[in-house]
Amino acid sequence: MVSRHHQQAKRVAEALDAAGFEILNRVVLNQVLVRGANDEATQKILMRAQESGVAWFGNSVWQTRPAFRISISSFRTENAHIEKLITLLTEVGPNG
Fold it and tell me: For residue 26, which phi and psi values (nearest 5 degrees)?
């Protein structure tokens, strides 16, 4: 399960990076720390994701600026869920 979550987190980070999001951490386990194009966009992205009902993740602060943290931790999380998350966030885009 740990290996699967690590691979899923890496997939999220790579896809969001390619879509123009800022990935703030090295993905070494199941966590991805992300920012949008700016602070306002980051907050909009978080709000839109939470309101979508597709995924939920919490806000965070990194070096005094807003960010959001995606934590992949459920044994029920399948690759299809990861692809839905990526689709949602890339449709919202780094500008929110």
Answer: -80, 130
CATH number for 36: 3.90.1150.10
First to last CA, the chain: 32
Residue 95 lies in a domain: no
The residue assigned the tokens 């885009």 is 93
Cα gap 76→38, rounded to integer Å? 33
pLDDT in tens, 26-73: 999 999 999 999 999 999 999 999 999 999 888 999 999 999 999 999
Nearest partner of 33 among 45, 43, 22, 18, judged by Cα: 22
Q: Three-class SS of residue 32?
A: strand
The model's pTM: 0.94
Single-letter amino acid, residue 39? D
Q: What token pair was written down for 6?
A: 């690590």
